Amino acid sequence: MKLTTGWLKPPYASTGIDHLGTQAPCGMIYSQLLPGITNVTDRARYYSFYPWLVWSYDQRYLKDDHAHFVERFRRADCLFTLIAERHSQVSDQEGEQHGIAMVGRIKLVPALARLKAGESLRLSQYATTENTADRYFVNRLGGLSQYYAGTLANLLIMESSTTSWARYSEEYGTLLAQNFDTDIPGKRFWEIVEGDKVTQANLDELSEFCACNIPSSRAECQQLASSQIAQLMFVELLRAHLAASGAFPVGWLRALGDSRLAPSLRLMHQAPERDWKLEALASACAMSRTTFSVRFKASVGRTPFAYLIEWRMRLAERALRESDLSVAGVGQSLGYTSESAFSHAFKRVVGRAPRSYRASPDACVTEK
Ligand SMILES: [Zn+2]
């Protein structure tokens, strides 16, 4: 059988409020694996909200009462959905921008009608873990453990080790939570969670939590966009890989979740221009060179150096698309002393020369 390979147009543009750029690749993966499934990642604010929720819980309460944590977490999860849905109703009614895919919506949206009629509602009635008609979600940690924990762990924002008690990472999770905290009325949010009583007016005063307000939260956006190298890599590699093969990138996902390999990935991402030696990468992971090489290859599907070069070229693509740097300058910033060495590497990975790529980044290349 003759097989012809080709390049697909990568999903550089994604609609909606997907500030992490995860929606398009996830949509592609989901649609390929499970046709018809809802794309659960399209409420990008959860990536900020959940780390913030756990972080700000820590600022307010003792950390040793798990039942208390779960109870407050669930109330907050419900409140978050109610805020977004209410905001959708009072603004443009375009659910896409606000609350159309929020967790627990099926049970919580009908409750909004009661608020409209002037009633108030108890969050605990929906947040309950008991099997009642109003329970918003079965999973104890709601949407976090059902949909987002794995991705947040892959992005190094939250920790994957604990299941019963969600943790944010010191490195990224704390920063993100603090930045999110600067633009939302966090104190008021917790007062309402604590008071266990919500009115329509409460939802309106908390509307800054709605996903549509992400663009107005500059610190949050910046934190997500600029300093989160891991997630940029995740998104870029996912895009590139999907563009190249359309297949599910098991290797990268597994490597991101492999805490023993993580130090080597971090080093390469932080200083892609460095002339990394196997020795240094292996010792950062506390492994012998052989063990490291074998494990890396098994997990990522390529050698550390092939990975490094590929990562450099993803950065190069972005620089060519978005900056005015000369081709030689781009190469230099990634550790290539000559333009020809850089162009050669670029062509091998991307399939065409840097100048041609810069002229039309989105062009499909049929031959490698
Ligand atoms: Zn909104």
Describe this structure in words.
By secondary structure, the protein is mostly helical. It has two domains: 46-226, no CATH class; 228-359, Arc Repressor Mutant, subunit A (Orthogonal Bundle). 58% of the residues lie in helices and 1% in strands. It has 19 helices and two strands. The longest helix has 25 residues, at 66-90. The two termini are 20 Å apart. Bound molecules: zinc ion (ZN). Zinc ion (ZN) is lined by residues 84, 87, 91, 97-98, 210, 212.
Provide a compact summary of the structure:
The protein is mainly alpha-helical and 368 residues long.
Count of distinct structural domains = 2
Order of helices and strands: HHHHHHEEHHHHHHHHHHHHH
Can you count the helices?
19
Strand content: under 5%
- Describe the largest sheet: 2 strands, antiparallel
Distance from first to last alpha carbon:
20 Å
Helix content percent band:
55-70%
State the total count of DSSP E strands. 2
Question: Key features?
Answer:
58% helix; binds zinc ion; 368 residues; 1% strand; Arc Repressor Mutant, subunit A; mainly alpha
Which helices and strands occur, and which strands form pairs?
Blueprint (H helix, E strand, L loop, with lengths): L22 H11 L12 H15 L5 H25 L14 H12 L6 H5 L14 H13 L3 E2 L7 E2 L4 H9 L4 H10 L4 H6 L12 H10 L1 H17 L4 H8 L4 H9 L7 H7 L4 H12 L3 H19 L4 H7 L5 H12 L3 H6 L9
Antiparallel strand pairs: 1-2
The chain binds zinc ion.
The site of zinc ion has 7 residues, from helix 3.
